[in-house]
Amino acid sequence: MPAGLGGSGWLAITLETVMGTYLPPSTAGTLWVPIISESLHYEEDRYLSPQIRQSTVMSDAKPGYYHVEGDVVLEADANFLPYFAHCSRFAIAKSGAGPYVYDYTPSQAGSASTAASGNVARTCSLTVVRNGLGFGYAGCTMGTWEFTLDNGVLRCSLGVMGLSEQLPGALGTPAWISSGLFGADAHSVYVAAAAATPTFGAADLTFNGFTSNINFNAAPQNRINANRSASYISFGETEATYNTELDFTSRTEYDNFKATTRRAVRFESVRGGATFTLATEAVRLDFNNSIYESYDVGLGGLGDLIMATTTGRALGIAGGAPIQLSIKSAANIA
Amino acid sequence: MALEVTVTNDDFPKGFEFTINGLGVFKNGETREVTADQERAFVAETGMGVRDSVKASEVVSAKGTSSVKDSPPVGVSDTASLDPTVENKKAAEKAGTPVELISVGGISSPPDTIDDEVAVPDTPVVLTKPPGEVT
């Protein structure tokens, strides 16, 4: 087989009905996802035997416990994001009659799980074809999320962790949905007082870039069960942070940083309408209660704009969720 | 009946558009006839015929008669190899294109497995120096 290019490959996602039972892309409901890159791989703790046999070299190797992990990077698209968000540590609320609104808030789940159907936390099977050869990854969950702007386009990087690698049988026939990118005209940033349901006013027009990170501290758990693959993926502390840069025109937020004043921050991207309510596709990430962890302002140089570089962290809030990821999509996940 | 293809994904509304490389755009839940040119483009893209590609899929289905002979999967040939090895000799004889094991000069190794049905060549193998070799 001659060498192949990445562009000839593809990735497909299939929601699992039983955690860790791989579903090939020929399964009903499979979605082919246009990605920028992926690095899913088999990760093993191989045992090397240090037997003393008149030699200073390890004498034997034994297959050890393994799991699968890696990153999937894609341009954020409301058609596909709900599938990945369903396979993460979120509580899910669905509303609407098409397009649908999915509200994801961090849950307290200690490990990934799935169900036969429904808007509950799920796991997924990911199938990747590289140079015509299929790789199946079962029991996958999204342990980390990053949203950022790349040349004005919203990108999402997912940290995937899964139970096992499988050999796909049938690869199916890829059927692609047209791209629905959130471009430079789609984004807005809002800042307000922290609340369980903050009241955001007009968009703040001073922000230059926005990167947000959600980390569920996922870890593979292998157990003694005559099987080398992971038994489940556990979760730890939920950490939600953002970092951004904005024109320094007022010391209000700087003073809020020093006073550890709670602030709400919203990053929103919409298509097909000027607001989230009117849009046909949208992604919104709300930090309902957050503090600034750093707020740096300096005189960079004679001709440099005076910018503030800031990082923030979400905190819990009574009667509400520390963060909420809302996705408006045509996808009707049942 | 000409070849017809259907894309079905119950998570998306009826009429939502999906694209299959080579075959074009399909509306969710609707069946569309594909042309011979589209089939050929699909085979060129994937190395497989449409029916072979979709036969196990619950997302894409096909019915009817292809107007293009389905190409075999990449790497597999309908024709038995003419390489003069034992296994290919059996396959070639089955296909009606017998292959003789011949000596082409140089060293010829016996087959890895001894098979009573394999005819041992009458011509003895002779070691010869390649032309131009200096001793």
Overview of this protein structure:
The complex is a heterodimer of chains A (334) and B (135). Chain A is mainly β and 334 residues long. Chain A has two helices and 23 strands. Chain A has an 18-stranded antiparallel sheet that branches. In chain A, strands 5-6 form a two-stranded antiparallel sheet. Chain A has a two-stranded antiparallel sheet with strand order 17-18. The longest helix of chain A is centred in the C-terminal third of the chain and has 7 residues, at 252-258. The two termini of chain A are 41 Å apart. In chain B, 19% of the residues lie in helices and 14% in strands. The relative contact order of chain B is 0.13. The A-B interface holds A 1, 25-31, 79, 98, 132, 169-170, 172-178, 330-334 and B 7-13, 16-21, 26, 47, 50, 53-60, 74-75.
The gist of it:
The complex is a heterodimer of chains A (334) and B (135). Chain A is mainly β and 334 residues long. Chain A is 4% helix and 47% strand.
Work out the strand percent of chain B.
Answer: 5-15%
Helix content of chain B: 10-25%
Q: Which structural class should the secondary elements of chain B be placed in? A: alpha+beta
**Contiguous runs where pLDDT drops below 50 for at least 5 residues of chain B:** 71-81, 103-111, 113-120, 131-135
Salient structural properties:
heterodimer, A: 334 residues, mainly beta, 18-stranded antiparallel beta sheet, two-stranded antiparallel ribbon, 2 helices, globular, B: 135 residues, alpha+beta, three-stranded antiparallel beta sheet, disordered C terminus
Compile the SSE list and pairings.
The complex is a heterodimer of chains A (334) and B (135).
Chain A: E1 10-15, E2 31-33, E3 37-38, E4 41-44, E5 47-49, E6 60-62, E7 66-75, H1 81-86, E8 90-95, E9 100-106, E10 124-130, E11 133-150, E12 153-162, E13 164-166, E14 176-177, E15 187-193, E16 207-215, E17 219-221, E18 232-234, E19 239-247, H2 252-258, E20 263-271, E21 281-297, E22 307-314, E23 323-329
Antiparallel strand pairs in A: 1-2, 1-10, 3-7, 4-7, 5-6, 7-12, 8-9, 9-23, 10-11, 11-12, 11-13, 11-16, 15-20, 16-19, 17-18, 19-22, 20-21, 21-22, 21-23
Chain B: E1 4-7, E2 17-20, E3 24-27, E4 31-33, H1 36-46, H2 50-54, E5 60-63, H3 86-94
Antiparallel strand pairs in B: 1-4, 1-5, 2-3
